Structures are given as C-alpha cells and as structure tokens.
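Bench log. Compound arrived from synthesis this morning; before running ITC I wanted a structural hypothesis for how NAP sits in the protein. Inputs:
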Amino acid sequence: MAQKSALVTGASRGIGRGIAIELARAGYRVAINYAGNAAAAAEALKLVQEAGSDGFIVQGDVAVAADRARLIAETVANFGRLDLLVNNAGVAPNVRADVLDAGEESFDRLFAINLKGPFFLTQLAAKQMLQQGQDAEGFRGRIVNITSISVYTASTNRGDYCMVKAGLAMMTKLFADRLGHDGINVYEIRPGVIATDMTGGVKEKYDKLIIQDQPGITPIKRWGKPEDIGRAVRAIAEDRFPFSTGACFDVDGGFHLHRL
Ligand code: NAP
C-alpha cells in the first residue's frame, strides 16, 4: 500500500510536533511547516525519522498567500499527493488586553494567522485533493483543524483569540459540507489546556486551576500533552471515523462538561 503523506502547519514545536510524530508512527510522511524556528523544525524532523518515517521541513507563514501556495506545491513535489492537511499553526495574543481596550493590531494578527491562513490553505489543499484519485480507503484526502476550548469559553482578556477559534470551528462545518460528496472528510479537534510554549507563561495559573483546586477545572486532573492531540489526529489519519465529517472531538480532560 502506498505510503500516505501529510502537511502539518506549525509542526516545529508543541502540539504540531506531537501530531507529526504520531503521524510518523502511523506510517505517514510529514511535511513539517514552521514560521521562524528552523532549529526546532529540524529537531521535529529527526523525531519523525526516529518514529520510523520521513519527511521534510518547510518554512512558511500561513498568513501569507505566496507561502501557502508554496507549502502545498512543495508537499506535492516531495510526496506526489496530499492525503492529510492539519491546520495546527496558531498564535496567542502577544499582550492580553480586556475586550474594552483590545487593539486592532492584535486582532488583525490573530485573524490572519489563526483563521485567514487556515481558510485559504484549506482551499488550496482541497483543490489538490480533488484532483487526486481515491486511495485504498476510498478517500481523496482528509483535513483536520485544531481549534480550542476558546471556541465556546469566553476569556475577556483575549477575545480576539476566542473569536477566531470560533470562526475556525465554523470553517470545519463549511468544508465538511462542501467536500463530503467528494471523498474528503473534515474534522475539528478541540484541545483543552496543553503543556507547550504557548501556555508556558501561564503555567502557575493552570497548575492551580487543574491540579491544586478541588475539584479543579477538569475531571482528568493533569495537563494535556501534545501527544494527546497527536493520538486523536492519528485516529483520523488511520480512518477510524470514515462515516464522520464535520465532527468535533473534545481532547480536553473533560473540560467541556457542565458540572454541578
Ligand atoms: P506553540 O507551542 O506556540 O507552537 C506554535 C507553532 O505554530 C510553532 O510550530 C510555530 O512555528 C508555528 N507558527 C506560529 N505562527 C505561524 C505562522 N504564521 N505560520 C506558520 N507557522 C506558525 O503553540 P501550541 O500550543 O503547540 O499550539 C498549536 C495550536 O493549538 C494553535 O493553533 C493553538 O491555538 C492551539 N491550541 C493550543 C492549546 C494549548 O493549551 N497549548 C490549547 C488549545 C488550542 P515556529 O516554531 O517557527 O515559531
């Protein structure tokens, strides 16, 4: 059976790296995209190789149209086809500001990287997948969007982040509806609090909320790991959910439960 291939945005560090490693364990070759940290990307590629597969690293800012086109072109040039796109790259606001004071610069940055980038990258990926023949499982491709509990959790000091993640959840439904007839399934994975560089600056706050507080914000009393998200993406990559599209998977230690 032909080896499958994936493009994972923001795969140099954190959750994206965890996804790339799990995909390698599933036999996928992985295009490891990064924005500026080439050393981290090279390390991620080494881990992909140690996990038994291969790939290549590709710099590119998902907010930039020419970079998005190059990401797809290089992936296809290297692998011949694109079986899976994972829209993982994302940023938090540089400064947390109250919704009454939050500025346009942060809004535009988050909108460009976290929503506009994934939308137009998905458009390109879908067009590539539509040109491809079906694989052995009957799919032309699969698309996974990494959103957040911020889709439905209001954080008034980072409203821009919450709004763009809510947009990304809707984007999942739009592409799932549009592409379902064409052999392309689209999924949302909604992580809870995951230990990465993004949450490094708020470690003490979440140590208290998750571990020290009783009962704490999650029934499963630990931080999430990049591997937790990687394993969920791997299940999709291995076609464990062939009759699901537009579906959202909460990978959050049970954060989403309403509890009394
Ligand atoms: P992270 O540790 O800060 O890593 C961010 C990754 O995205 C890096 O690989 C970075 O590349 C890349 N990146 C940043 N801007 C980019 C751009 N413009 N174009 C391409 N790549 C870019 O973040 P993370 O915690 O792993 O988060 C990954 C995703 O999960 C994000 O979408 C985030 O919103 C989401 N998420 C995270 C959490 C959490 O608790 N950590 C929870 C829910 C959802 P460089 O290494 O080159 O900078």
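What the model suggests: DSSP finds eight helices and seven strands in the chain. The first strand starts at residue 5 and ends at 8.
ITC booked for Thursday regardless.
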